[in-house]
Design brief:
mainly alpha; transmembrane
């Protein structure tokens, strides 16, 4: 794999896992209210 491919793959992985982590933190801080 070329260096540019590795860099782009790293950015994509960070975007996916970073978004997942942000979603988990958001849910923990603001849980949904039950009806």
């Amino acid at each position: 794999m070329s260096v540019s491919a590795i860099v782009m793959m790293s950015i994509a992985i960070l975007a996916v896992w970073g978004g997942l982590a942000a979603a988990v933190v958001n849910i923990v801080r603001h849980p949904e209210k039950k009806d």
